[in-house]
Structure formats: C-alpha cells, structure tokens
Amino acid sequence: MRSPTAPPAMPWLLVLAVLAGFAVDLSAATDHIVGANHGWNPNINYSLWSGNQTFYVGDLISFRYQKGTHNVFEVNETGYDNCTMAGVAGNWTSGKDFIPLPEARRYYFICGNGFCLQGMKVAITVHPLQHNASSKGSGNTGAQGETSAAALTRRSFAWLGALAAAVAAFC
Ligand SMILES: *[C@@H]1O[C@H](CO)[C@@H](O)[C@H](O)[C@H]1NC(C)=O
Ligand SMILES: *[C@@H]1O[C@H](CO)[C@@H](O)[C@H](O)[C@H]1NC(C)=O
Ligand SMILES: *[C@@H]1O[C@H](CO)[C@@H](O)[C@H](O)[C@H]1NC(C)=O
Ligand SMILES: *[C@@H]1O[C@H](CO)[C@@H](O)[C@H](O)[C@H]1NC(C)=O
Ligand SMILES: *[C@@H]1O[C@H](CO)[C@@H](O)[C@H](O)[C@H]1NC(C)=O
Ligand SMILES: *[C@@H]1O[C@H](CO)[C@@H](O)[C@H](O)[C@H]1NC(C)=O
C-alpha cells in the first residue's frame, strides 16, 4: 500500500509509530500472579483468588510453580469442570509462565498432571478495555479518570517487571 514516491523520512516515521504503539501496549497490561504469594500449588481455592481480580484485554496471567512438578494447560469449560484435557488450547511448563490474555472471554487453566483434582484449576473472565470511561461527562468521571490513570501506571510497571523477569529467565 506504500506509495513508491514516499520521502526517505517515511521508514523512520513508521518505526516511531510502531514503537509508540508498542509503548501504548506496554502501558495497558497488568500481570495477575495466580495465587499471589501462594503461587500455583495444590489445595488453594483459586476461585477466591480470581474473584478478587479484574482482568482486562491485554493483561497477563502468570503462574509460578516448581518446574517439573506442575504445569499449566489452557482447556475449555468442560475440561475445567471435569479436570480433563477437553478443548486444550495450550500448555506451559517453565515454572514461571507469563500467558497473555488477548481476548475478552472466559479462560480456563488447569494443572495437567493430576493435581487439578486437588484444586489446581482457575477460571477467569477477561473484560474488554473501556477506552472512553474517563471522557464521558456523566458525574463520576473524576474518580474514574484517576482510577484508570493509576491502573495505567500500575500496568506499565507490571509489564516492565514481566519483561525483566522474561529477560532474566533467558540468562
Ligand atoms: C472456594 O471458596 C468458595 C467461596 O467460599 C466456595 O464457594 C467454593 O466451593 C470453594 N471451592 C473449593 C474447591 O473449595
Ligand atoms: C481480596 O482483596 C481484599 C482487598 O484487597 C483482601 O483484603 C483480601 O484478602 C483478598 N482476598 C483474597 C482471597 O485474596
Ligand atoms: C464435564 O462437565 C460437564 C459440566 O460442565 C458435564 O455436563 C459433563 O457431563 C462432564 N463430562 C464428563 C465426560 O465428565
Ligand atoms: C470442550 O472441548 C471438547 C473437545 O473438543 C468438546 O467436546 C466440548 O464440547 C467443549 N466444551 C465446551 C464447553 O465448549
Ligand atoms: C504442548 O504444547 C506443544 C506446543 O507448544 C505441543 O507440541 C504439545 O503437543 C502440547 N502437549 C499437549 C499434551 O497438549
Ligand atoms: C463508550 O461510550 C458509549 C456511550 O457513549 C457506550 O455505549 C460504550 O459502551 C462505551 N464503550 C466502552 C468500551 O466503554
């Protein structure tokens, strides 16, 4: 689609646009650590944990566990309810898995080596981003604006943390 007569500055502008878009993406992610400081282990009620979280498109869910002992499978609702591989859509085994949540829908994760039956299952609902929440002039915009600004700040730090951890994992 690019015009052959585009001036030489165009490629750099494209690079800048891509970087800017990336920065926006970075600022819009929260890393939800499953089980918080309890991690991904048997005999924890992950419904209580997930009920306390609000997930938005672009956030991450991350699982921390003993590599080799546990793992993570994304399944569908049937797999989640019955602790089976029904509807399996992915698996992770690193012990420190950062899983992106790109769609607004329910996600179901279980441990794939029998520990699902001991509670290692978590279901979450990912909500669409509400871009116009703070620009609507309907009473409580101030509080909402502050909330989303704080959320954006938290999100960018969460992403940087996730990136740093990912980089560290490679070293
Ligand atoms: C987790 O806690 C909720 C709320 O107390 C409860 O309804 C649910 O049955 C519990 N789940 C398990 C697997 O114990
Ligand atoms: C849910 O969040 C509240 C407020 O942050 C906290 O007091 C409570 O311990 C949390 N519950 C669970 C199960 O994490
Ligand atoms: C799995 O759980 C669903 C409920 O979500 C149930 O209707 C179905 O019979 C179960 N399937 C198996 C094979 O246990
Ligand atoms: C989950 O996947 C299995 C196997 O593909 C399928 O039979 C089942 O209907 C699916 N369950 C749901 C709730 O989509
Ligand atoms: C786990 O995922 C890999 C690809 O990442 C796939 O090749 C493998 O078959 C999956 N294993 C299971 C049991 O689904
Ligand atoms: C944006 O605002 C319109 C009303 O002006 C509303 O219908 C819509 O749901 C809002 N979108 C989001 C993502 O909040």
Structure characterization notes:
Residues 30-128 form the Phytocyanin domain. The protein has 171 residues and is α/β, with parallel strands linked by helices. The chain is 35% helix and 20% strand. The strands form two sheets. The chain has a five-stranded mixed beta sheet. A three-stranded mixed beta sheet has the order 1-3-6. Residues 135-150 have low confidence and may be disordered.
**Estimated structural class:** alpha/beta
Strand order of the largest sheet: 2-8-7-4-5
Task: Report strand %.
Answer: 15-25%
**For the report, how would you describe the main beta sheet?**
5 strands, mixed
Q: What separation lies between the terminal Cα atoms?
A: 40 Å
Rg from C-alpha positions? 19 Å
Bound ligands: 2-acetamido-2-deoxy-beta-D-glucopyranose
Please tell me what the overall shape is: globular
Instruction: List the total number of helices.
Output: 4
Protein name: Phytocyanin domain-containing protein
InterPro entries: Cupredoxin, Phytocyanin-like, Phytocyanin_dom
Family: Belongs to the early nodulin-like (ENODL) family.
Domain Phytocyanin: 30-128
